[in-house]
Design a protein that fits this description.
By secondary structure, this protein is an alpha/beta fold. About 35% of the residues lie in helices and about 10% in strands. The chain has a 3-stranded parallel beta sheet with strand order 1-2-5, with no helix packed on it. Strands 3-4 form a two-stranded antiparallel sheet. Helix 1 packs across helix 6, helix 2 runs antiparallel to helix 3 and helix 3 packs antiparallel against helix 4.
């Protein structure tokens, strides 16, 4: 399966990855704005929040995903770390996972792809999953690559046949908020997140 690589990916995205024996991340596509490639959803006191990693723009306007550089002139690191602290500081597994999250931020990686992969590998280790993945060497989307550009930020997840809502306790609100970043699931469920992800993967 070939798919674009997301930042702090959604539970839907993880459910899809877990259903595949081998994944190829598309890095030769042109970067697309307002997608999950550089944004993620978490749950804070005021509801669902969007975290966006700013990128350095180029004059040509078109940039391959593998070449997208993170813009550290903007104060996004402090914003993201503060938002995660506010959202999950009282979550059952915050103290266990937060140092790992912070350590990746502290690396100040230059490229968005590298940042996204670091978090995917971290979440994989937490869940006891070793991803069998590679990076694309060219942009060649075939019919079998049905999941490239399939999980769209501007489309309701209910319109796709990947994720089905399965509730778990969250820190805020009386109504369950589905399909947030897998970070929400991990902070609230720890390694028991595997139980939920495995159930979703079987549906």
């Amino acid at each position: 399966m070939r798919i674009e690589i997301h930042y702090l990916p959604s539970i839907e995205y993880f459910t899809l990855l877990l259903s595949q024996e081998q994944v190829q991340f598309e890095v030769h596509e042109h970067f697309q704005k307002q997608t999950y490639r550089n944004r993620a959803l978490i749950l804070g006191a005021n509801g669902v929040e969007t975290l966006t990693v700013p990128i350095q723009h180029v004059h040509s306007g078109k940039l391959l995903m593998k070449d997208v550089r993170i813009d550290y002139d903007q104060n996004w690191l402090r914003i993201h770390q503060g938002a995660i602290q506010a959202a999950y500081g009282k979550a059952p597994y915050f103290e266990y996972f937060e140092p790992y999250i912070r350590s990746i931020f502290a690396k100040k990686l230059n490229f968005l792809v590298d940042l996204n992969i670091e978090y995917l590998e971290l979440f994989g280790r937490i869940l006891g999953k070793k991803w069998n993945y590679s990076l694309s060497e060219s942009f060649e989307i075939e019919d079998k690559d049905v999941f490239w550009n399939h999980i769209l930020a501007k489309q309701d997840w209910r319109e796709r046949n990947v994720y089905q809502e399965l509730a778990y306790p969250q820190c805020f609100g009386n109504t369950f908020q589905p399909n947030l970043s897998v970070l929400d699931l991990l902070m609230n469920q720890g390694r028991d997140a595997n139980l939920i992800l495995n159930q979703l993967n079987k549906k």
